[in-house]
Amino acid sequence: MTALVTGAGGGIGLELTRLLAADGHNLIIVGRDRDRLERLAADLRARYRIAIRCEPGDLSEARAAFRLWSDLGAAGIAIDILVNNAGVGLYGSLDEQDPDQLDRMLQLNTAALTTLTRLVLPGMRQRRWGRILNVASVVAYQPGGPRMAAYYATKAYVLSFSKGLAREVAGSGVSVTVLCPGPTDTSFDDAAGANVDVLYKRLSKLNAAAVAHAGYAGMKQQSMVVIPGLMTKLLALAGELPPRRIALEVNRLLWKPRRPRTERD
Q: What is the pTM of this model?
């Protein structure tokens, strides 16, 4: 069987790639850093003697998902497991965010994920077997995130899309699982431009390997939703409880830049 993993070069995606390799799956690994992908592929080939194809590319570019699928089709590769892990955040007031970066985030977090899912489904349905794992976030359960408004909305989309699709394909031999981790020890904050002192960054963080293990186990068990960690489950529950405007205010405070300390402080 062959698994396609996006965002395989680091963090949760890297750990999921390792788990798939350890289970003997051939791999298609996608990421922007060609050298990082090649090093990962060489290591996993030596350890597990599996076939690995590196597909360096940026899925935040328009129609990049279609180009990737065309390349795989030309090579005659069928995908049995799809892991939509690639994603990025963008910090700041919406009116101050770079429009190009915003567009790329929307493309990567929602459009590319949806397109790849659509493209793999017919083959999975025909073979009556397939596994799809979409990586969302615990913020998908929140009513919104001031200074991260668009990012929170993309993850809410991934959660809603995944749950709806899971019910849609029930009984077909294909399962859809959505992984909703809480704050995780990755390079996400730096990539999102959240290099300011905010309370959110002071929350305890999950280990990327532990998050990946939870998501991978949930996918194999055909679970619809995986929320790893007790604190993450509490955050998800709190975000859905009324009055949701309280959660919205808490999120505003979590992402509000802290005032620099002065000598008088």
A: 0.88
